Amino acid sequence: MDLRHLRYFVAVAEELHFGRAAERLSMAQPPLSQAIRRLEHELGVELLHRSTRRVGLTDAGRSYLARARRILGEVDEAAHEARRVAAGAVGHLAVGCVGSATYSLLPALSRGLSLELPGVDFSFRGEMLVPDQAEALRTGEIDLALLRPPIADLSLTVLPLRRDWLIVAVPADHPLAALRQVEITDLADAALIVHSADRRSVMYDVVLGLFHDAGIEPRIRHEVGETSTLITLVAGGLGVAVVPEPVTALALEGVAYLPLAQPAAHVDLAVAHRTDRTEPHLARAVSLVRRIV
Question: What are the transmembrane regions (predicted)?
């Protein structure tokens, strides 16, 4: 079925006049009349009563008009939807965030994405460790990840966002809280709270690397999986922690945040997605994340 013939018929049926319908369609009247004849021949029914004075719908024509309008409406809607998909204006994306990004970025990021891509349905998962994020990206459980490099997975595209300097979180009543800044050597005798080694946390390796570079054996008291738990334990006086600066967004009572003297002590933040994912709405979201962050 030629959709043009459907549109021609609807125009004539609504105008009940070949001349006005031809003008509406920006075409000559004879080709329009011939197209309607071909449609009737193809269907094997008469759709229009014709006379020298008027055009009217047959019973079959009235029935056909209702269906034709629905079909054309669905075709137009499908075309509109296809254009929106091609433009990256619709879809669903799940975003997984490492702990510090959960608190420092997620509120602004969720607002920004919702405002600029209102047709995309976003969901968010916070407090994810990098190995869990990589696995969730591979399986499709999440579509984007805000994570801490390095990540050795050639199936993932990892794009840098920013550099976060490291600071020290200490109980507010701890002797170290009186210092203007802290060196790693100041933490030699302190009980240390770190992210879990068993779950292959990037921060675990970074923090232990700082201690080992200073020739200090860290006194690890607690290993935790979530940044919020880590800071809660610091607030409870159970130890100190080396964390990325954005963790200060967790302004818990009983915690003091101090600069770390080592000028090169930092971790990077990146956005990652599966390399074989090329949907337009994913590309637009990545671009927005890079701009917002």
Answer: none
Query: Is this structure's pTM higher than 0.85?
Result: no
Instruction: Tell me: do 110 and 81 sit in the same domain.
Output: no
Q: Residue count of the chain, please give it.
A: 293
In tens, the pLDDT along 255-267 reads 999 999 887 789 9
Q: Please indicate, yes or no, whether residues 193 and 245 belong to a single structural domain of this protein.
A: yes
* pLDDT tens track for 151-183: 888 899 999 999 999 999 999 999 999 999 999
CA distances from 128 to 90, 227, 287 (A): 26, 9, 22
CA–CA distance, 153 with 155 (Å, rounded to integer)? 5
Residue 236 and residue 114 in one domain: yes
Residue after which a domain boundary falls, among 29, 57, 86: 86
pLDDT digits (tens, 9 = 90+) for 45-74: 998 988 777 888 998 889 988 888 888 888
Q: What is the secondary structure of 76-108 as a DSSP string?
A: HHHHHHHHHHHTT-SEEEEEEE-HHHHHHTHHH
Q: Are residues 191 and 132 in the same domain?
A: yes
